[in-house]
From TrEMBL:
<keyword id="KW-1133">Transmembrane helix</keyword>
<feature type="transmembrane region" description="Helical">
    <location>
        <begin position="186"/>
        <end position="205"/>
    </location>
</feature>
<dbReference type="GO" id="GO:0005739">
    <property type="term" value="C:mitochondrion"/>
</dbReference>
<dbReference type="GO" id="GO:0005886">
    <property type="term" value="C:plasma membrane"/>
</dbReference>
<keyword id="KW-0812">Transmembrane</keyword>
<dbReference type="GO" id="GO:0005811">
    <property type="term" value="C:lipid droplet"/>
</dbReference>
<protein>
    <submittedName>
        <fullName>Putative conserved plasma membrane protein</fullName>
    </submittedName>
</protein>
<keyword id="KW-0472">Membrane</keyword>
<dbReference type="GO" id="GO:0009247">
    <property type="term" value="P:glycolipid biosynthetic process"/>
</dbReference>
<dbReference type="InterPro" id="IPR051276">
    <property type="entry name" value="Saccharopine_DH-like_oxidrdct"/>
</dbReference>
Length: 262
């Protein structure tokens, strides 16, 4: 989508045609919002992004948690666990390329975010009563029942955007969100942190990106190969997503002495 997505969105909006995709690059999605929001709104066109594995499951889990949380939801931690089937697991090469160039342009995200924030959201985000703490790169979670590390997908960004839109339209208070993934074990988690660090550094340089695209299997421990996964691999793999939310019994704005309710 970083290479070809803009042309498709532009053509759809220009011809008053709805657009839906499975993009997962936050900076691409932000740029499309900044460039085509007004025109799409004036023409009554819907541009729906991230409608695949990222980030439909996360949105559904958050919606379910909101409906069943007994109180004022304040923050959410999401834990993704992927189960590999007997046929193994293979990541699409296109997904691999998307991650490479998402990290390549990650430094642009903050600037794009500043440019588009006023275009979409006139209401400022309300102050947090309690800041959700940042976790280590590898930590043990009782909720996920395993070792976890930060999940670099688009889920957190998409849930944040949806929450901000709910605030603008319906006055619903946004929640803080952190997304993580569960590793099969401690040493596997360490390996993922190591590979992720190498991947992130190489993606910043043209020579490094060439290596990542030329030898995807080496830099992904064999999980990425050119081509697509087989039908057997897709059908035998599964995932679970667990969300843990916390908040207050009542809206803390109604009573400043709410520290014990969290």
């Amino acid at each position: 989508y970083s290479f070809y997505g803009r042309q498709v969105v532009k053509a759809c909006v220009g011809s008053s045609t709805h657009h839906i995709d499975i993009s997962a690059e936050p900076q691409f999605m932000k740029k499309m919002e900044a460039d085509f929001h007004d025109e799409a709104r004036d023409k009554g066109v819907m541009v729906l992004r991230a409608c695949g594995f990222g980030s439909i499951p996360a949105e559904m889990c958050l919606s379910f948690l909101r409906q069943h949380f007994q109180g004022d939801l304040d923050n959410v931690e999401s834990f993704l666990a992927i189960k590999e089937g007997p046929q193994g697991m293979k990541i699409n090469f296109g997904t691999w390329q998307s991650i490479i160039y998402w990290l390549r342009h990650c430094s642009e995200f903050a600037a794009v975010l500043r440019d588009v924030r006023g275009v979409l959201f006139s209401r400022p985000r309300p102050p947090c009563n309690w800041r959700l703490p940042e976790r280590c790169f590898l930590f043990r979670s009782e909720v996920a029942d395993g070792w976890c590390l930060p999940f670099p997908g688009s889920d957190r960004y998409v849930m944040h955007q949806s929450d901000m839109l709910r605030q603008q339209l319906f006055g619903v208070k946004p929640v803080q969100v952190r997304t993580y993934m569960r590793a099969p074990g401690f040493f596997t988690g360490l390996g993922l942190v190591f590979l992720g660090t190498i991947f992130g550094l190489l993606s910043l340089f043209s020579g490094g990106r060439w290596l990542l695209e030329r030898f995807p299997g080496f830099f992904s421990a064999g999980k990425v190969q050119r081509g697509v996964p087989t039908r057997e691999q897709v059908s035998s793999c599964s995932f679970t997503m667990t969300m843990c939310g916390s908040g207050w019994k009542e809206n803390p704005a109604l009573n400043s002495e709410r520290e014990g309710d969290k």
